[in-house]
Amino acid sequence: MSRAKLDGLRDELKRLERVVVAFSGGADSAFLAAVAHSTLGHHAHAVTAVSPSLAGAERDDCRTLSAEWGLRWTAVATHEMERAAYRTNDIDRCFHCKAELMDVVGPIAAADGATVVLGVNTDDLSDHRPGQQAALDAGASFPLVTAGFSKAEVRAVSRTLGLRTWDKPAAACLASRIPTGTPVSVGLLTTIDRAEAALKALGFVDVRVRHYGETARIEVGVDELDGAVAARTAIVDALRALGYRYVTLDLEGFRSGNLNGALSP
Questions:
Q1: CA distance 126 to 131
Q2: Measured between alpha carbons, how far is residue 182 from residues 99, 194, 218 in Å?
Q3: How many angstroms separate the CA atoms of 217 and 100, rounded?
Q4: Which of 30, 81, 134, 239 could be disulfide-bonded to 95 (CB atoms 3.0-4.6 Å)?
Q5: What is the pLDDT of residues 44-74, one digit of tens each?
């Protein structure tokens, strides 16, 4: 285990003294929440932003993890769908989403005398993620970056600490399945959530259902491609029941964030 980096993370959290962790339940935010809790106790507050862009299963897992780990936890509603700039879904959609997050979580942190911290790791800095700038502009901090944690190191140290989230598949917000320029709606996010839930119920782990009008483009892990072909009838039936006319399988397999910057299908 990278003991030096873990010690560095704890030192950074101690320097901040009180933190509100933006807790989505993914490997990064879960690791940060767990370490913050073990380091700061009640002065660490995990807050989950609940909106149509958060998959129902992820919301439920945040609640479960908080109970398992004894976290001080709050779920709050965010309202990014009320922001026209978010619904438009241009290349800066994530900026408007994080701005809404900070508008909602910021007052909670202010009441606690705390700093909002996000589970951004060093690998995230190389991707197109305008939301990071929105968070920084609003006073958030990225302790994993300060301590030098990559995604692989987050997973490795999480495993050593016995956190069951160490190998949890990435679960970006549901809006990331919608190509840039296609408007975001609650109905569309709900359809995508149900589509991915149907595939997971069939046993697939790394899943994305990319929305292109009447077409669903499915991504699963490369090692799951054969299984997807074998289960094609069940997959097609499940997605057609949700309104898709065409169901396709991406032979390149799952790639996180592969729609970033894409202006059209």
A1: 13
A2: 20, 19, 18
A3: 29
A4: 134
A5: 999 999 999 999 999 999 999 999 999 999 9
Given a contact cutoff of 8 angstroms between Cβ atoms, the answer to whether 86 and 64 are in contact is no
Run of H or E including 216: strand 215-220
Q: Is the pTM of this model over 0.85?
A: yes
What angle separates helix 3-16 from helix 151-160, to the nearest 10 degrees?
A: 100
Contact 20, 105 (CB under 8 A): yes
The span from the CA of 29 to the CA of 121, in Å, is: 10
DSSP 128: -
Name which of 121, 113, 98 is nearest 9 in CA terms: 121
CA distances from 226 to 93, 108, 197, 220, 221 (A): 34, 47, 19, 10, 10
Backbone φ/ψ region at 257: left (φ over 0), alpha (ψ -120 to 50), beta: left
pLDDT at 259: 53
User: What pLDDT does residue 264 have?
Assistant: 37
- Residue 262 confidence (pLDDT) above 60: no
Return all residues near 126 (Cβ < 8 A) that are at least 6 apart: none
Neighbours of 239 (CB within 10 A): 23
Residue 71, phi-psi category: left (phi > 0), alpha (psi -120 to 50), beta (remainder): beta
Distance CA 193, CA 248 (A): 17
CA–CA gap between residue 187 and residue 190 (Å, rounded):
5
Separation between Cα atoms, residue 118 and residue 125, nearest integer Å: 13
